[in-house]
Structures are given as structure tokens and as C-alpha cells.
Amino acid sequence: MTGKTRQGRSHVVIIGGGFGGLACARELGNRDVDVTLIDRRNHNLFQPLLYQVATAALSPADIAEPIRRTLGRYRNVKVLLGEVHGVDAASRTVSFDGGRWISYDYLVIATGSEYNYFGHEDWRPLAPGLKTIHEARLLRQRLLLAFEKAERSTDREEQKALLTSVVIGGGPTGVEMAGAISELGQAVLKQDFRQIDASLFRVLLVEAGPKLLAAFPETLTDYAKNTLENMGVQIRLGASVSQISPNAVQIGEKSVRAGCIVWAAGIRPSPAAQWLGLETVARGRIPVDMHLSVVDCPDVYALGDTSQFLDEHGKPVPALAQVAKQQGRYLGRSLLKRMAGEAEVKPFRFHNRGNTAVIGRHAAVFDFGRWQMKGRLAWFLWAVVHVLLLVNFEKRILVSLQWMWRYLTHNIGARLIDENTRNIPATTDIQETLR
Amino acid sequence: MTGKTRQGRSHVVIIGGGFGGLACARELGNRDVDVTLIDRRNHNLFQPLLYQVATAALSPADIAEPIRRTLGRYRNVKVLLGEVHGVDAASRTVSFDGGRWISYDYLVIATGSEYNYFGHEDWRPLAPGLKTIHEARLLRQRLLLAFEKAERSTDREEQKALLTSVVIGGGPTGVEMAGAISELGQAVLKQDFRQIDASLFRVLLVEAGPKLLAAFPETLTDYAKNTLENMGVQIRLGASVSQISPNAVQIGEKSVRAGCIVWAAGIRPSPAAQWLGLETVARGRIPVDMHLSVVDCPDVYALGDTSQFLDEHGKPVPALAQVAKQQGRYLGRSLLKRMAGEAEVKPFRFHNRGNTAVIGRHAAVFDFGRWQMKGRLAWFLWAVVHVLLLVNFEKRILVSLQWMWRYLTHNIGARLIDENTRNIPATTDIQETLR
């Protein structure tokens, strides 16, 4: 595998096919440059709706698209399935899948983030996060299996444990999961099960901080809290998790038995900084300048969750899809300018398109900075925005319509338990899959 | 778990939630009887389209529905997720999941069939069949991974091997898989890959017998053969497979390296007969009389692939979904009659709705016994029939439309490689999942 430039054209290597990496590749598509995008997965994921895969409203394929198809129409863009484990800035090469390497003229690092277990790596398999299709499928299966086991159980205590879900982390993902699990339970337990006492079903949302959705203004966080509580979600604020075992969580003094445990308690950047042997900032993020250029690494750029960009007020931009998307688009354009020999390129500026979290059907919050929005209208806006994003993402209108349809009609779409996970997978199994 | 009858009502236990078991349960739904349906999976599968999951045209959830939802509206029907391992006709109990048991007044065995490796169980993980979602997903991932590896390979011989698929068995499933794989390759290799020489892509269809689709009349089998060959499928008739290794198949004298190996070479009944300690017929099938009643087992009935029913001419009915469906419906009705004390119940008669196999887009064959059909019109009829069956199966019109849409527009829908199978799973892994 060589990355040498053809016909003297520059070769841009992009690591990561998420929102940022793809936006960058699209900008460079069918232009006078060679591009190689490397990802360890063959698909890009519409993560904002991943929680709906975990709660059986969507199929994985509804929100995932093969990177090859996304970029198929750009003849100058190559896609490689491979896992990067090193970058040599001196020789300008990227090494992947042990032994293989590719050289670059410009390198874009868009490797995103993963869930942070704050030193408790052993918790990862017990309480999966929500970053990959596999994790979403795993959570979905644990949830549904717990229901099935409860249906068969004759021991009320065991039933109660199996029908308890614990969501750790009160950020957007935690709030969305807690709301969606509670809706799933209410939708299926009464109607489709015969033995289960639906009153035993409960969802616990545990947040170490003093409030939910810390990034949002007070009015919205209060609204989120009240709405969730009205949906039957039990919220524990200022409560920290000290231990997780396969079927229980230690919350403060109390040990809670649970059939499904979800981790949504904060992310950490990908290990990309280590590849470069860089001094990192903000828990492992790669420091970049106003042009997303990595300090002291010529022609190496980083964007999205794995980088630390300070806006004009010296404030770091949040870890959001829209940031990665905007940075990717910006970087694609500015790289073209640099290759064209343009002297000065404008620095990146983040345009806040609004921060949102959905709490449940008919309930969401929007924060546009200057003004806020909550309730039914916000939910409707959320749904419309996501259908449009999904259509744009997938170029598959029917899928989006179907999603909207299922979602509005409470038709639980994808309640599948794979044959291969009827028993909760062994630690090693999951470890391997989350590598 | 007790199966004792409530309010003196009879308790019917149905083992298996396939076409037959569900049809039977539906007939008994909301009638004056208690019903328990046991299946080791939580979903029922529209197997006629499973090959499209294996070839990335459909998502698993598109053709699978939670049994609980299918039967949710029948308040007298209970669904149990469990794996049956014994039947005691004397005490009228069914034991499942080791230790658990349930008692019945009437027992319906609808456990279907599995792929037969004719004594080579070690081939099962190397050449998966096409009976479960997991197998379909596995095949899909092997196919797509082989393409990805070929894209990265610089060794032409290795590329050729990775781009070779071998389908073993020339029945409907084998023909459908061979056609669909060849269409998938032609659809994606040229457009989405950069390094691959698409001319290296090939599909081998191996049949030990003298012709494809042996159950169909000459005219149709010839048509199928010619059509497949025009699609670029290489057909080996009268060729037997003597050995399968992880990446190669021994066909007669010749060893063929392959990136994906599919097994479609015949089925065998479920081990249900052994539970009953019965004298079996026709390679392990349960002999039943004209009323589907198991010989020498009072109040035990068997239907579909796992049973052997002889029609009025003494000819065994074929192992088809429509047979199981008709027998299930018949059995439900006749059980109600027996409980109502009706003296004599009419024997089961099979009504042939036509036997079909799809070869590729715009090509299918239909055999209605008296007359046949092939080509574009047959394909169109096949597509319409399956959309209707799917709608009826799923009660989800949009899914069916979406499928039709994708199928007609050649839009490859679900080209996902799970993170957890980037490397082909270890034998043990698959063994476990196919249990």
C-alpha cells in the first residue's frame, strides 16, 4: 500500500470517517488532489439517533451508511478499512493494522472520542456506552433479554431487578436513554407480556453533578428533570457510582440490582495525541491553532472531539457533531486554498446551530444561546430537524419517513435479540468488540 | 412455571414460532383455550427473504418481527423465550432451558429444520447456512470483509481468492444466493472500490446432482442455469464437495480458494423426534397421520419440516413455508373442533400455491404444477407476492415499500460490518451461536 502522490498531486490522508472526516473528504471530493480516508469501520454512523437503535426504535442500517457509498461518487477519494496505530510526522507516514503504512502530504486527524470510564476499564463491558452500532445492539439485547427473563421468573425480587435499568450520566445521551427506555418499557411490558407486573419496571438516572444537562440553561434543565420524573424516571443527582458488577450498581451507599446498565458519564478523546507524542491539553485532546493546525506538526490537522479548539474568546468549543462537521468543511476548503498557494487563510469560526436534547416523545429542549425552546414544539422541531439531517445523511427518504412513522405511531421497530447473545456475552467478547 | 389449565380450559403448548407454529397460535388466539408458544428466539423470521439480508439488500429487522408483537393481541396466548430439550408424553410435560418445565393438554411440535452437513459438523462454521439472522449477518460480513481485504491486498492471487464466493447446493436458496451475490458484486465493486480489478470477482455454484432446482420441471431448471450463467455465475453440476477449510473448498479434484463460502446443500429436521423417542422416517422426520397427529403419542401433533406427512397419493409434502402455514392453520382449527367434542375432523389436504425461486432482478421461476412461468413476468409476480406476504407478515407497509424501492433501484441497503466481526469469528463463537 503506497500513498505516494500520483501526477505530482498532493495526497491528503484523513483518519476517521465520522461527521468531521467525511465533511472534509466531501469538500476535497473531485478536486485536483488525492484523498485517502481510513476508518476501522466500514460505515459512518448518525450518532444522534443511536440511542433509538439501543431502544429498538430503529435498525442499525437505518442510521449507518457504508463510507464507500457516501464517498463513492468522488473518484479521487480512496477508502481504507483499517485501524491506525501510529503517525510518524518526520517521515509523513501513517501506520495501520500492524505493518501496513501510507504516506501523506497533509494529514487530517478526525478520530473523535470514546466513553471515559475514569480508570475503571473493567466497567466497560458491564455498562456499555453508546458510540458504536455494536454497543447499541448490545444494550438493546440486554434490555429485551432482561424483560424475557423477568417474564419467566417467578421470584418477585428477581423480576424487580431484571426490570430495573440504570443509566449513568445525566448529559444529553443519558437523558435520551432514560427517556427512551422508560417509553419502551411502558409500550411493551403491559401489552406483550403476561406474567410481568409492569409496576416493577423502573429506570434510574444517576448524575454525579448537581443537575441534568449541565451544558444547558437552568430553565431547560429543570424542565428536563420534571418531564423525566413525570415519565416515571427516578433521578439521583449528586450521586456517584462507586462500583459496577454484572447485575448491580453501587450508587452512593446503596447497591441497586439492574437488568441493564448504561454508561453515558462522559467521553475522552481518541488516543491520537499519543501517536504524535504530543503534549496534550484537556484530558488528552490535541491542541490546535486557529486554523486547526496541530501545534509543532507541519501539515497535520486535527478536528472534532479529539482536538481542543479555543474560540475567539479563548473558550473551548463543545464536543458536538455540528462542530466536527463545520471544522471538517472548513478544513477541506482551507487545504484547497493552501495547495493553491493562497497566502493567508481565515481562521475557523464556530457557528452555533443550537444545542438540543430529546427527553421523550413530545418533549425536547433547544438552546440557541440567545434564546431557548422546550416542550412539544421543541420536540417537533427536533423531529423535523433530525428527519432532514437523516435524509441528507442517508439520501434515503423512505428510511427517514419510516423512522418518523414508527416513532410517531409508537411502533417499536427492531426488537431483535440475536441468537448469538441470548446469554449476555462474556467480558472478553465485548472487550474485543470495543477495541 | 406451570402449564396447568386455568378455569378448566385446555392448555395447548406450541413449540416453535415459525410459519407453522404462528399460524396455529393465531387460529387459537382469543378462543376459549390457553396457549403457550415456546421459541428459543424472540422473533419470527420471514425466511424467504433472508438471502437478501445476507446480501445487504435488507436489514434483519425488515424481515423479523418479535413473536410477542405478532401474538400480542391474543390475550390467551403466552410467549416463552426458551430452548426445549425434552418431551415426556406420559406426564404430558415439556422441559426447557434445563430444569424448567411446562405441562400441556395438547402439544404442537413445529420446530422446523436446520441445515444438514451430512456428518461434517466442522464445516458449519466455515460455510454457514441461511436459517437465522445471525447466519445471514455472518455471511454478509464475510462477503463485505472479503471485498475490503481485496481492496487492500496487492497480491493478485490473494485478491482473486478473496473475490471468489462459493455457494454449495443448487436448490432455491443456493440459486438465490448465487444470483444475489453476483448482483451485489457487480453493483458495488466497480463503483465503490478503487484498487480492485472487478474482473477477478466470481461466484461458483456447486451442485452434486445433475441439475439445479431439482424440484422444478426441466424447462425452468434450464432457464435458471442459462440465466445464472449470463449473470456470470459459474455452475458446477455433478460436482461434490469433499473438504472445506476456512478459506478454500475442495470441489472434486480441484481446491478453490474463496473469501466467502455458503452452505445450501440440504436440510434435516429438528431433533424433536428424539425428544419423543420415536421411530423416525425420512432422515429423522416425525411420522404423522392424516390429521397431523403423531403416531402412538396421544394429543401430540407435528407439522412442517420436522414432520413427514403423506398426501392422498402417499407422496410426502415438500418442506415449504406454505405447507407449514397451511398445516398450522388446519391444526389450530381441528384442535378447536376436538375440544368442542366434534367426532370426526377432516384430514389435512395440501393446496399447492406454487413453488417459486428468484434468480436475480427481472428473473424468477414459478411452478404451479399444471403450468409454469419464467422470466421478467415471473420475477414481477414474485416481487408482488413477496411484498404482499411481507406486508401481511409485518403489518409494516413502509418497510415493504422501502424494500421494493431499494430492490428496484439497486440501492444496496444494509452494507454493515459489525465491529465485533472485523475478523472472521472463531469456530467456537459460531458453533455457540448456531446451537
UniProtKB/TrEMBL annotation, chains A, B:
Record-annotated External alternative NADH-ubiquinone oxidoreductase-like C-terminal domain positions: 353-408
Tell me which UniProt keywords the record has, alphabetically. FAD, Flavoprotein, NAD, Oxidoreductase, Transit peptide
Q: Which reaction does it catalyse?
A: a quinone + NADH + H(+) = a quinol + NAD(+)
Pfam families the record matches: NDH2_C, Pyr_redox_2
What is the enzyme's main class? oxidoreductase
Q: What residue range is the signal peptide?
A: none
What's the EC number here?
Answer: 1.6.5.9
Annotated FAD/NAD(P)-binding domain residues: 11-328
As for family, the record states: Belongs to the NADH dehydrogenase family.
Protein name, per record: NADH:ubiquinone reductase (non-electrogenic)
Protein source organism = Rhizobium paknamense
